[in-house]
Design a protein that fits this description.
By secondary structure, the chain is of the alpha/beta class. The protein has a single domain, classed as NagB/RpiA/CoA transferase-like (Rossmann fold).
């Protein structure tokens, strides 16, 4: 199966996911992801601000901030991403692709010394392969940083077997779903 076929299949599955099942899965991923990051002692974490079709991240962000972690979110600039550190008082504005982006001073990804990057995925496949929406933002982002654990969060229904990935597709170090950790 190619990536475009995988994307279409997973979009249909996501569209069929009930609000109640999504809320339950979001909570399970929130607990597993936040606990993992906090137990590992990660103090500098990048996490995305979720679109409605993605695993919700607000609960993870709240838990990390409450634990004293530094948390930043990516903002899209041209064909790349920079970072903005956030706190409970951060304001947001509609940015690229309708994503609520934090308002604040941007930091180059290379300068952030991140411990972990929590990453959205449209789908995932064997070997911790991540399939995004096809624009390559995270693949280019990962090429600019080193040392950060790459953590994809998704619903288990987003798994698709035997997808042909490209050489530039960066695999995750860990994938967390409502069913637990996959590494």
């Amino acid at each position: 199966m190619d990536k475009s076929q995988a994307r279409a299949e997973v979009k249909a599955r996501l569209a069929a996911l009930s609000a109640l099942d999504k809320k339950s899965a979001d909570k399970a991923v929130e607990v597993a992801c936040a606990d993992y990051l906090i137990v590992r002692g990660y103090n500098n974490v990048c996490i995305y601000n979720a679109l409605p079709s993605e695993v919700a991240t607000l609960g993870i962000v709240t838990r990390l901030l409450d634990a004293g972690c530094k948390v930043c979110m990516p903002i899209v600039r041209g064909d790349g991403m920079s970072l903005v550190y956030i706190d409970a008082a951060t304001e947001y504005r509609c940015g690229a692709f309708g994503i609520a982006e934090p308002v604040g001073e941007s930091v180059r990804a290379e300068d952030a010394a991140l411990d972990a990057v929590v990453t959205p995925m449209l789908a995932y496949t064997d070997g911790l392969g991540r399939i995004g929406k096809g624009k390559g933002y995270y693949d280019r982002f990962f090429a600019r940083i080193s040392g950060a654990e790459k953590i994809g969060i998704a619903y288990s229904l987003q798994y698709v077997s035997n997808v042909e990935l490209d050489m530039h597709d960066v695999p995750m170090d860990l994938i967390i779903t409502e069913k637990g950790l996959n590494n």
